[in-house]
Amino acid sequence: MSGLPVPQHILSPRSVMAEIMNRSGPVQRDSAWAVPLVVVATGLFYVVAYLFVADEFPFDVGRDIGYRLDVWLDWLKDNLGPLFQAIKDVIVWFLISLEDMMLWFTWPASIAAIALVSWLLVSTRMALFSASSLLLLATFGLWESTVETMALIIVTVTLSIMIAVPLGVWASQSDRLDAVLRPMLDAMQTMPSFVYLVPAIAFFSLGNTPAVLATLIYAVPPAVRLTNLGIRQLPAETLEAADSFGMTRRQMLLKVKIPLAIPTIMAGVNQTTLMALSMVVIASLVGAGGLGLDVNRALGRIEPGNGFLAGLGIVFVAIIIDRITQALTKKQQDALGSE
Amino acid sequence: MSDADGQPALRIRGLYKVFGDADREGLELSRSGQSKDEVQEATGAVVGLRDINIEIAQGELFVVMGLSGCGKSTLVRCINRLIEPSAGEVWIDDREITEMSDDELRETRRRELAMVFQHFGLMPHRTVMDNVALPLEIGGVARRERRERAANALELVGLREWIASMPNQLSGGMKQRVGLARGLAMETPILLMDEPFSALDPVIRRDLQDELLALQSSVQKTIVFITHDLNEAVRVGDRIAIMRDGEIVQLGAPNDVVLNPADAFVREFTQDVRLHGMVTAASIMDTSPEAMTGPTDERYVVREDAVLDELVPAGLSATQPLQVVDGAGELVGVIPLQRLARAMVSDEAAAAIAAE
Ligand SMILES: Nc1ncnc2c1ncn2[C@@H]1O[C@H](COP(=O)(O)OP(=O)(O)OP(=O)(O)O)[C@@H](O)[C@H]1O
Ligand SMILES: [Mg+2]
């Protein structure tokens, strides 16, 4: 007897980190198809341009091409206006409702509720931390900003999960989709956010909506990756047993694979949340309110003290959300144990 | 063991499995008679199974034995196609499993081929009860009935009190019994068992062996049973196949395998078994006409299926060769006392006499 196999389906925090670190470079082996794509596209572009546009070599069309792209974007905006408006309405409605609810609840009651959740899910220490840090923010007059930021994060993360989990599950079932998705996810994470902030404003005008969408672009990839990975790395023995009962692919996915991948999916959600938080200052540039806007404003008015307090607020919110989602992840892991 | 209509429950013909990228080349080399090592040397492909031919009768308990890595698990997985064979046929009754569509295969797995796994393969997110009921859920059994059947199966393996536990709260042996209950609850005509008792203590193991035998005789289950333990094989098996390097090197009834090992490998494999329980009067008796007509001790008549241990008292008091009779009381041979004494000295000697 060589002993039981090491549990594999639950990714340790280390392997999750390794997966995330792995992805920090823009181009890697899994994205290899993107390299020939870029090479071939450049080659084609050059040949076409040489034949029809330029008469010398090498040539330079300058920034013209960038302006052409803008024309397309304008066309999209003019023709898909109602769609963008609908998206905007839904996002704004969610944000406002959430904010109103938390503000109506008043800050003492909200803080008590968050402390209670921290206590139930994490620990007494965490409950004390949540209560005192939020109390501090409220005393500084930052409660409204904190609520706005929390609402922004909650809406963004909810949307991220709604997009990322189905996409990750699908990618886990299709090697082709996986191969197509990887370089796109890499690009989403490495593309400087200002690049997509501009068209986002163009489509949705200043406000919370472009902020949410820009944050989505940045925050969705880790959840897609970890969902995909969590399903792909399940132990062969468990899947084989499930197969021996005569399960269909669908039954396999719903009854075995997704439930077993939940701890890893949760780790992805945790990552997504932290990425979203790291975007709040940038989001305020396109019109999002909250603590990010406070930081931004302090920057403009050269008020380092206020900037520091608002920054501290972001850190507190990040710690609270991180610990709570991590505790949820751990609960799932413990429930599954090591089989 | 043969069934009334003679139709085997499982039939395996010319089955090969070669693992690796060069599986086609490996298969050709293996077909042309090269050994597992030679094929691996030449192509890098691993021969898992080589030209397996077996017929297993309805209600038979067929044991497969062999050293680690000889291909036992590969063989059972080829039966329900968890592993796709590289070549050959597997038939269940008169249908060829290896030719089935995905739908037919799924249906066959649900209704006819339960499997118990060496590494249990429990679902860590489901309770013990829900683990055992899962295959029934897949098979479309109504909730009440499947809970009832699962509870009965868990009762049988002695885990009634653990119904609501999660698998990670159980010991290795308990998990193995959950896997066993899951296979039994499916109530399929055929049960594939990959080292189902390996993690159990001797007491529970013996109990479950008895349960299995009782079940097999009461519902005529056909069982393919893999084990490392020859004593277990001899105890439960109707026939035993011994494998080495993906091939079957000997196939026969338990005492046949133990008393007449086909080669040095099988002999080495079988030398630990307690021969006293295996050597029968029939296997050491002298059937030559001169011995049978010679003087015998009328007071000591033994049946031909009496084992060596039962012959000892007679052997100690007799003064002439013992008479051996068959079920009808007809004299079928005699056992000279000297021969009996030699057989009792050591297992090797007994085996040697049996082989004479
Ligand atoms: N997926 C695979 N890929 C490559 N080789 C494999 C694969 N599965 C099994 N093998 C090889 O096939 C051979 C038989 O393996 P198998 O698991 O059937 O052995 P076993 O008799 O069940 O051993 P054990 O008693 O240790 O369970 C081994 O040489 C193994 O290396
Ligand atoms: Mg095995």
Portion of residues in helices of chain A? over 70%
Mean pLDDT over the residues of chain A: 83
Percent strand of chain A equals under 5%
Q: CATH class of the domain at 276-355 in chain B, anyone?
A: Alpha Beta
Number of helical stretches of at least 4 residues of chain B? 16
Provide the CATH topology of chain A: MetI-like fold
- Shape, principal axes of CA atoms of chain A: flat
- The name of the CATH architecture of the domain at 276-355 in chain B is Alpha-Beta Complex
Residue fraction in strands of chain B: 15-25%
Quickly name the level 1 CATH class of chain A.
Answer: Mainly Alpha
Characterize the largest beta sheet of chain A: strand count, sense, and whether it forms a barrel. none
Can you give keywords for this protein?
heterodimer, A: 339 residues, mainly alpha, disordered N terminus, B: 356 residues, alpha/beta, 6-stranded mixed beta sheet, 4-stranded antiparallel beta sheet, binds adenosine-5'-triphosphate, binds magnesium ion
